[in-house]
């Protein structure tokens, strides 16, 4: 009975959290791309998203809609690295969307599982299975092939996207560790993350020269209703994405979150060729994206089989102890 109590949350909660994150993540790519195409100040957009998240959770807590605790200094110190890596990831990802089309952006972000696996080996989580290793290599090979056929190749944009992969890996691993060790809920981690982000982001938009020009441009742009709707949608979806991402990582794992990201990329890649433009279709580019997607699907299947086999192994271990 004690073993049962310590097992993972119900499969329905795990599934809902994973699907919700997948939908929110896919929608956010297109919404951010739409905003950046009209408003190039990506750091200001990120600051507004984090400010909206902080205010929503704060007033929700004061009004009794959430049981999230207030700011604790000791906990804030522990979660400071999570906030730094999270904002670095989003900042580099948003900046990369200026020069990288959506299909290629998603192909590059599919390298995250490779980074997570490498970090797992470095932190003593063991070596991956043969199928997982091969599927990750296939995904990486597809990314390289697609890049060779990308006529709109932007070296700087690619560098920014690859850097965001590194930071995404780090914060996912830290979120998984924080949720397990400190017993924090997804809303509490999200609150700390957004609150701790504000001084860091405010400093960056001043140093990079975005502020105050970004504010005056934003006010001017908001008089245009379609942009205002997209901006508000971006703020709302930023909150939804943060919540579902932290929930998925805590309820499942950092690796599961990256798997969901890979699967949602299939739909995003297809839509990316049709929506928002910026993609020159070429046989090599398309072939690379197909290989990249196939590797992602294979990877997801391999991890599903691996996770499904674990309860059976646990049961056999319990039976062995009984004997």
From TrEMBL:
It is found in: Membrane. InterPro entries: Sugar_P_trans_dom, TPT_transporter. Residues 24-300 form the Sugar phosphate transporter domain. It is a multi-pass membrane protein. It holds the Pfam family TPT. It comes from the Eukaryota. Keywords: Membrane, Sugar transport, Transmembrane, Transmembrane helix, Transport. This is UDP-sugar transporter DDB_G0278631.
């Amino acid at each position: 009975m004690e073993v049962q109590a310590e097992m993972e949350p119900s499969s329905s909660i795990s599934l809902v959290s994973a699907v919700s994150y997948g939908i929110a993540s896919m929608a956010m790519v297109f919404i951010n791309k739409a905003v950046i195409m009209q408003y190039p100040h990506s750091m200001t957009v990120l600051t507004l998203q984090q400010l909206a998240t902080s205010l929503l959770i704060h007033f929700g807590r004061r009004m009794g809609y959430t049981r999230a605790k207030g700011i604790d200094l000791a906990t804030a110190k522990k979660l400071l690295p999570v906030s730094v890596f999270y904002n670095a990831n989003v900042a580099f990802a948003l900046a990369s969307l200026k020069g990288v089309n959506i299909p290629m952006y998603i192909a590059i972000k599919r390298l995250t599982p490779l980074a997570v696996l490498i970090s797992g080996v470095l932190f003593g989580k063991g070596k991956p299975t043969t199928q997982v290793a091969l599927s990750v290599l296939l995904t990486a090979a597809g990314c390289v092939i697609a890049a060779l056929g990308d006529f709109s190749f932007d070296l700087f944009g690619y560098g920014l996207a690859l850097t965001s992969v590194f930071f995404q890996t780090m914060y996912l691993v830290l979120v998984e560790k924080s949720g397990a060790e400190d017993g924090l809920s997804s809303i509490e981690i999200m609150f700390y993350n957004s609150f701790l982000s504000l001084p860091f982001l405010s400093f960056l938009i001043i140093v990079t020269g975005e502020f105050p020009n970004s504010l005056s441009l934003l006010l001017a742009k908001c008089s245009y209703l379609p942009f205002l709707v997209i901006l508000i949608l971006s703020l709302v979806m930023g909150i939804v994405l943060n919540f579902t991402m932290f929930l998925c990582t805590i309820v499942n794992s950092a690796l599961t979150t990256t798997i969901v990201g890979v699967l949602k990329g299939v739909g995003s890649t297809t839509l990316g060729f049709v929506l928002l433009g910026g993609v020159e279709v070429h046989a090599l580019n398309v072939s690379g994206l197909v290989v990249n997607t196939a590797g992602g699907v294979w990877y997801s299947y391999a991890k599903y089989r691996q996770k499904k086999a674990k309860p059976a192994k646990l049961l056999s271990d319990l039976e062995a102890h009984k004997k």
